[in-house]
Amino acid sequence: MKTIIAAYSQNRSGSRSSVRAALRTLLTAPWPSQRDVRSCLQLLAVLQWVLSFLVLGVVSLLVLIYLVFTSFWPISALYLAWVIFDRDTPEKGGRRLACLRRWPVWKYFRDYFPVQLVKTHDLSPSHNYIIGSHPHGILCVGAFCNFTTCSTGFLEMFPGIKPSLTTLAGNFLLPLFREYLMSGGLFPVTRQAIGYLLSKNGTGNAVAIVIGGASESLSCQPGVTTLILKNRKGFVRMALEHGAHLVPSFSFGENDLFRQVVFEEGTWMRSIQNRIQKMMGFAPCVFYGRGLLSVQSRGFLPYPKPITTVVGEPMTVPKIAEPSREVVDLYHEMYVRSLLKLFHENKTKYGMSETDELRIV
Any residues with CB less than 8 A from the CB of 272 and at least 6 apart, and which? Predict the structure, then answer.
């Protein structure tokens, strides 16, 4: 009996020593630095944004379809009824939430790249504006961060101006994703939605349109800047019809965030991409970025490359109810010249060389 008690006491003493040793090791181990924690939070902020845009709508749709065949089918029925009742909201001013636009997560999102907004001229709150956003890139990071969140100081730089970003109308057909988009101040890129913002929402509205659209993402690659703009004149017509001033903007570094397999025009893969883009409204790109754990690995997250969005000088546009083709062409040409000037005056300041050119097709 004494032997058992002695062994037990010895075992307890050894256990205490092991616990003390483990605690000493834990206390002497290096804790993550403030910089490491900040980098981790930045990565998580970008991860949630990428997942939201790539899978939130599709997953929500699949979940609602699944619920139809379960005892929870009333959830799907009620949401469908809500969407039918609320179907016109995206094109009539939306339902933006200031708290989401000011969400602290967006500051970590901004600092991951980082994203910077540069102002060159004032925008008067007594006018409405159409901001042309270039280039599209893969996921329009610069346009989203600057015109949808408050993280880069747009509201402070342009007091009295309410920015809105347009995106594919098909995105507003996806359950829950449509609520997410509207709460951030995004609208479908349709004549009705843009017309509402420019004519029935007072003044001081700045509607940002990524002019090149999904087609431009197929030409996105580092070192080459190709804009699809030559035949994109609808935004100029809208500006003339509503007397909205045109403002060019360019996001330097947007094309450096991903690596894309670019198929040349005329190849069968490029023809498939173009066909899907025309049918579905989006272009199926073959691209990759960094992995979750390392910049050297491959994954679906953007590379941490700096993005600088420069907002150019507003171009005065008269209000013409039914502008002729000649007038539209004239102001389109003026816009292109203004954009080229903006690009060449700033390219060497923000990561490009003097020899880099801007191709407009």
Answer: 284
Distance between CA atoms of 162 and 205, rounded to whole angstroms?
5
pLDDT digits (tens, 9 = 90+) for 1-41: 544 444 444 545 555 667 677 666 656 666 678 888 999 99
C-alpha to C-alpha distance for 235 and 240, rounded to whole angstroms? 9
Q: Is 298 helix (H, G, I), strand (E, B) or coil?
A: strand
- Residue 334: partners with Cβ closer than 8 Å, 6 or more residues away: 315
* Strand intervals (E) in the chain: 115-119, 129-134, 162-167, 186-188, 205-210, 225-227, 245-252, 259-260, 287-290, 298-299, 307-311, 358-360
In this predicted structure, which of 179-183, 262-266, 270-274 has the lowest mean pLDDT? Answer: 262-266
Residue 278's Cβ-count burial label (10 Å; 0-12, 13-18, 19+) is exposed
Q: Give me the residue label for tokens 């198929």.
A: 263
User: Is the peptide bond preceding residue 114 cis, with omega within 30 degrees of 0?
Assistant: yes
Beta bridge partners of 130: 207, 246
E strand map for 86-193: 115-119, 129-134, 162-167, 186-188
- How many alpha carbons fall within 13 Å on the CB side of residue 311? 27
Q: Hey, what are 195's tokens?
A: 């017309």
Dig out the tokens for 255 from the structure.
């094309």
DSSP letters, 42-85, are HHHHHHHHHHIIIIIHHHHHHHHHHHHTSTTHHHHHHHHHHHHH
Q: Which DSSP state fits 229? A: -
Respond yes or no on whether the N-terminal peptide bond of residue 32 is cis (omega within 30° of 0): no
Q: Which long-range contacts (CB under 8 A, 24 or more apart) does 231-234 make?
A: 233/328, 233/329, 233/332, 234/191
State residue 2 phi and psi, 5-degree precision.
-60, -35
Q: Record the tokens describing residue 268, joined without a space.
A: 């069968």
Q: Rounded CA gap, 127 and 129, in Å?
A: 7
Residue 190 CB-half CA count within 13 A: 17
pTM given for the model = 0.86
